[in-house]
Amino acid sequence: MPAIPRRSRAAVVIFAALACAVVTQQAFARQRATIPVPSSSLSHGGELQFCSDLTSPPLESMGPQHKPVGLDIDLGNAVAKQLGLKPVWINTVFASIIPSLQAGHCDAIMSELRDRPDRRKVVDFVDYGASGRALLVRKGNPLHISGIASLCGKSVAVETGTGFSIALAAQVTACAKAGKPALKVQMFQRDSDAFQQLVVGHVDAYATTRETAAYLVAKIGGVQSTGLTFDPEKFGVATLKDNRPLHNAIAQAFKQIDANGTARKIFAKWGLLADMLKR
User: Fold this and answer.
1) Which one in 42, 74, 210, 238 has a CA-CA gap of 20 to 30 Å to 181?
2) Phi, psi angles (nearest 5°) of residue 174
């Protein structure tokens, strides 16, 4: 048998090592993806596509290099990893986020979507957090706003389609029935646009989630919270009601990241341990 030249032997060794590395990576990927997800439950093979309104830090927003960042982003990425799928984030206006899911523009919603009975008619939830809403006002609270009932005669900005927009619409009626000055509600497609109305002085208050309110108070000067939290509710990741395989897979993935401590680390990273749902 002819001898193999030294250079050829080296090439064989290198090729064998590379092949071993590829096999090892593939085996690791299979080991990591312990939860099966039928391809029929995904809009794109190998991907888990999330609809998210990326305007609500620290839950979800655009970070450096136009990259999504936040609590929901990290949790969604961790879930996708457990499923052996690539996470894809689709920036979606909140008011149309459930219709976007229904239209097949994504596989799931992860945007601090509150688990409410009306929404459960069309989607299934895997709850992972619980929180409330808050009002932001200008520093010093010159108009002495103390809650929703104190907004008669005032103006407030809010994102369309949120629970707070519904509560404010009800308060408009309450002010009128009580014979009090009218509450003026201005609705915006993006939460960041609603907040900007308070910053520039176009409204007296801005309604948002407790987490976003605390984040903005810490990051932006000239605003403060009224100190009250309204309508505490659970929130979670939503999938279509006829997509039970994906719902079940995501539920299993959350159990795994809860059990191995990943979820707790993510909540702690964003300073939101108080929001973590106790299972």
Assistant:
1) 210
2) -65, -40
Cα distances from 145 to residues 177, 185, 223, 272, in angstroms, run: 20, 15, 13, 26
**Six-digit token string for 117:** 């009975």
Cα–Cα nearest to 164, from 119, 209, 218, 225? 209
Low-confidence ranges of the chain (pLDDT < 70): 1-33, 279
Task: Give the position of tokens 């523009």.
Answer: 105
Angle between helices 71-83 and 262-269 (to 10 degrees): 160
C-alpha span between 146 and 135 (Å, rounded):
9
Instruction: Tell if the pTM clears 0.70, that is, is over it.
Output: yes
What's the token pair of residue 210?
């407790």
Amino acid, single-letter form, for residue 258: D
Q: What is the pLDDT of residue 170?
A: 94
Tens digits of per-residue pLDDT, 104-154?
999 999 999 999 999 999 999 999 999 889 999 999 999 999 989 999 999
Chain centroid to CA 186: 23
Are 76 and 113 within 8 A, CB to CB? no
- Beta strands, E only, the chain: 47-52, 55-56, 60-62, 68-69, 86-91, 108-114, 123-138, 155-159, 184-188, 205-209, 223-225, 230-240
Q: What is the DSSP secondary-structure string of 133-199?
A: EEEEEETT-TT---SGGGGTT-EEEEETTSHHHHHHHHHHHHHHHTTPPPPEEEEESSHHHHHHHHH
The CA distance from 195 to 126, in Å, is: 29
Q: Which CATH class is domain 132-232?
A: alpha beta
